[in-house]
């Protein structure tokens, strides 16, 4: 079974702090993703990575950056946390670049609920 | 722009009622479609997926979905719901034309089951 783990389930930070959210997957997946989940808005893609050191902006990248130094680890960074970044953050991974069956199925971590005060 | 739409934001049913949750997608080409479920306090997990072949797809826990290409739809169904089906349901899709295997999610439908 694919396992995607996230470093914290709950996190409370203050406005202006730099925040690191870590995600690790153990199935040698090429693609990794960061989403935020807000009520009524579903999942919105922040950034994704299709290879080590490669990244692409998603739909809402403003205020965020990412790092992928190793294949299994994908970090989301909030350079200066703000209250409107209070949300549930979900990490996911998938096997590889699309087209073939199962390549696009995403496996999710348990999420990190971040509160910015 | 590619999109996935779920028009029902909150559905309330009694136990044993039949369920149908709507999902429409707006792009062409090869489509891969998914339904994910998120039970309270748990992470998202896959209910079922469609890649090709039989448009009627069966998933876990008695759920099924039908891919209707002419209607750009992939509705989720269950003939008789249980209280344990209370969860949020997300439709998602991948188009062969989108970049780097990015999946687009709908806004979700919250399902509440009255015991």
Description:
The complex is a heterodimer of chains A (117) and B (115). Chain A has no helices and 11 strands. By secondary structure, chain A is mainly β. In chain B, strands 2, 5, 6, 10, 11 and 12 form a 6-stranded mixed sheet that branches.
Q: What's the short story on this structure?
A:
The complex is a heterodimer of chains A (117) and B (115). Chain A has 117 residues and is an all-beta fold. Chain A contains no helices and eleven strands.
What is the strand content of chain B?
A: over 45%
Radius of gyration of chain B: 14 Å
Can you tell me the residue ranges of chain B where pLDDT is under 50 for at least 5 consecutive residues? none
Shape of chain A: globular
Q: Biggest β-sheet of chain A, characterized?
A: 7 strands, mixed
Strand content of chain A: over 45%
Mean pLDDT of chain A: 90
Structural class of chain A: mainly beta
N/C terminus separation of chain A: 37 Å
Name the pair of protein chains with the most residues at their interface, and give those residue counts: A-B, 30 and 28 residues
Q: pLDDT below 50 for ≥5 consecutive residues: which ranges of chain A? A: none
Shape of chain B: globular
Structural class of chain B: mainly beta
How helix-rich are the residues of chain B, as a percent range? under 10%
Distance between the termini of chain B: 40 Å
Order of helices and strands of chain A: EEEEEEEEEEE
Which features would summarize this protein structure in a list?
heterodimer, A: 117 residues, mainly beta, seven-stranded mixed β-sheet, four-stranded antiparallel β-sheet, B: six-stranded mixed β-sheet, 0% helix, globular
């Amino acid at each position: 079974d694919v396992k995607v783990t996230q470093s914290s389930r709950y996190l409370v930070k203050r406005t202006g702090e730099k925040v690191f959210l870590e995600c690790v997957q153990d199935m040698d997946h090429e693609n990794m993703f960061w989403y935020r989940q807000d009520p009524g808005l579903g999942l919105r893609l922040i950034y994704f990575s299709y290879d080590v050191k490669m990244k692409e902006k998603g739909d809402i990248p403003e205020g965020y950056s990412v790092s992928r130094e190793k294949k299994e680890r994908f970090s989301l960074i909030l350079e200066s946390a703000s209250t409107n970044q209070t949300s549930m953050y979900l990490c996911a991974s998938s096997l590889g670049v699309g087209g073939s069956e199962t390549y696009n199925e995403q496996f999710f971590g348990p999420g990190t609920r971040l509160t910015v005060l | 722009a590619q999109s996935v739409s779920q028009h029902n934001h909150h559905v309330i049913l009694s136990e044993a009622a039949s369920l149908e949750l709507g999902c429409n997608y707006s792009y062409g080409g090869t489509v891969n479609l998914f339904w994910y479920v998120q039970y309270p306090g748990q992470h998202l997990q896959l209910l079922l997926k469609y890649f090709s072949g039989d448009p009627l797809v069966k998933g876990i826990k008695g759920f099924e979905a039908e891919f209707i290409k002419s209607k750009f739809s992939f509705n989720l169904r269950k003939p008789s719901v249980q209280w344990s089906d209370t969860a949020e349901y997300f439709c998602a899709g991948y188009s062969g034309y989108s970049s780097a295997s990015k999946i687009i999610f709908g806004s979700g439908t919250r399902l509440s089951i009255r015991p």
